[in-house]
Amino acid sequence: MTGPLSSTVDVSRTRALLESEPRTRLIDVRTPGEFAATHIPGSYNVPLDLLRERKAELAAKHDDPVVLVCGSGVRAEDASTLLAAAGLGRLTVLAGGINAWDQQGAPVVRGTGKWAMERQVRLVAGSLVLTGVLASVVAPKMKWLAGLIGGGLTFSALSNTCAMARALSLLPYNRTPAQDAPTLLAALTADDAPAR
Predict the structure, then answer these.
(1) Where is the signal peptide (predicted)?
(2) What is the pTM of this model?
């Protein structure tokens, strides 16, 4: 199977692609913290924020299939758009992301101590809502903090974007060290992918 790939592939088709084309590159675009917590064996972590920062360096020297992975598929779709604009071919997105992969019993590597972005967003949003409600007992206008967060979450669901996740991805905990950037990009662009 050396032709074009569909825009998304499900878990079973991804596993079949990995068997039929061993040079397939699984590129996980989640934050380093999320990747450390859970990832697909043999995948490479090339965070979406790194792809955005270094888009001028994204010219690939290979024609290997590339399957983009994130938590649910949203960030992988963003990465696919960015990479296609940079001229990379044979791109596809794992439908449902690592969540679908794990739910279907496909193998994963589990680490410790790191939280998935969705969990980080729930913690921050929940804490802000709780703070707003409790503080409104003393300062009634603080109830608007809870309303603002609720509105933001509603917009996030309707637009399939998340400003809070984007902001949290900028924290040092979720960032890629600058010295690792060329190595991480090589997993996506080099003729031969680095050893896993």
Answers:
(1) none
(2) 0.72
Q: Which domain holds residue 154?
A: 117-168
Q: In sequence order, what DSSP letters do the residues of 57-126 get, joined into one string?
A: G---S----EEEE-SSSHHHHHHHHHHHHTT--SEEEETTHHHHHHHTT---EE-SS---HHHHHHHHHH
Residues 179 and 90 both lie in one domain = yes
Residue 1 lies in a domain: no
Give the pLDDT of the chain (196 residues) as one tens digit per residue: 455 567 889 999 999 999 999 889 999 999 888 888 889 999 999 999 889 888 888 777 778 899 999 988 889 999 999 998 888 888 999 999 999 999 999 999 988 666 777 788 889 999 999 999 999 999 999 999 999 999 999 998 888 778 888 888 788 877 656 557 777 888 877 777 666 5
CATH number at residue 20: 3.40.250.10
